[in-house]
């Protein structure tokens, strides 16, 4: 299980930056909740958030929770202010720019700037509490300037929030090699008689054959290590097969 800790910046009595009728705490929460939503489409990932509502949470409470939980990654989401424009990301200032944390950040940063339609202000380093006090790899994103009209307009657009959140999730999926869960209504068409097995492991090895699966349309119940579990009854486990058709 990969443990991802998502930290929407600010909250409660701390609004964060403000501008153009927006409060940073609300924008960060919207993005963070969407990141969680997109991450749940992946297998073997479990998510915790420093807050899921407009709640006051201290910086040390955030890092303590992630540290005690043993998170594999700490992702902090913020909105910038101060009259600039664009997107930037941070890792802790004392880390090497070629280390593991930097590599992860680069992957996620690149996924985000591909789609966020904001100027790329660069991959930065900073001495910020959540980056310094978190024991795992961590990154903080600054998703545009709330006090710059063009950036703020984007933050008011639900589609943009979804795009930015999905890019955060896609980046994390890349870093941790996460695989998408099969959808219950995904179909699989079998064109020839194929051996079915009790487990994905058996299917992979071609051992302990359970049955012969006949050609036809099936639902995909589950996927694991290149093998798929196909079933005639949607949502009910069937048999494991090797989709590459190994005998
Ligand atoms: Zn902030």
Automatic annotation (TrEMBL):
GO biological process, alphabetically ordered: peptidoglycan catabolic process
Keywords: Hydrolase
Name the record gives this protein: N-acetylmuramoyl-L-alanine amidase
Lineage per the UniProt record: Bacteria, Bacillati, Bacillota, Bacilli, Bacillales
SUPFAM superfamilies noted in UniProt: Zn-dependent exopeptidases
Single GO MF descriptor: N-acetylmuramoyl-L-alanine amidase activity
Highest taxon listed in the record's lineage: Bacteria
InterPro entries hit by this protein: MurNAc-LAA_cat, N-acetylmuramoyl_amidase_3
Domain MurNAc-LAA: 63-173
Signal sequence coordinates: none
Gene3D superfamilies for this protein: Zn-dependent exopeptidases
A cellular component annotation (GO) from this entry: outer membrane-bounded periplasmic space
């Amino acid at each position: 299980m990969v443990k991802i800790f998502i930290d929407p910046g600010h909250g409660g009595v701390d609004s964060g930056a403000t501008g153009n009728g927006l409060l940073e705490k609300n924008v960060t929460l919207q993005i963070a909740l969407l990141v969680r939503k997109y991450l749940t489409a992946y297998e073997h990932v479990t998510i915790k958030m420093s807050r899921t509502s407009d709640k006051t949470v201290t910086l040390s409470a955030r890092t303590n929770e992630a540290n005690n939980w043993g998170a594999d990654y700490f992702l902090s989401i913020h909105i910038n202010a101060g009259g600039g424009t664009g997107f930037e990301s941070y890792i802790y200032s004392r880390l090497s720019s070629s280390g593991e944390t930097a590599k992860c950040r680069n992957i996620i940063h690149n996924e985000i700037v591909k789609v966020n339609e904001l100027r790329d202000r660069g991959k930065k380093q900073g001495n910020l509490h959540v980056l310094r006090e978190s024991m795992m790899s961590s990154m903080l994103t600054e998703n545009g300037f709330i006090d710059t009209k063009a950036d703020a307009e984007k933050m008011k657009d639900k589609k943009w929030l979804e795009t930015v959140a999905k890019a955060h999730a896609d980046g994390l999926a890349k870093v941790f090699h996460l695989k998408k869960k099969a959808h219950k209504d995904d179909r699989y068409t079998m064109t020839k008689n194929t051996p079915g097995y009790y487990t994905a492991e058996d299917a992979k090895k071609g051992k302990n054959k359970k049955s012969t699966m006949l050609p036809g349309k099936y639902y995909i119940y589950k996927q694991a290590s290149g093998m798929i579990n196909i079933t005639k009854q949607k949502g009910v486990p069937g048999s494991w097969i090797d989709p590459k058709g190994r005998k």
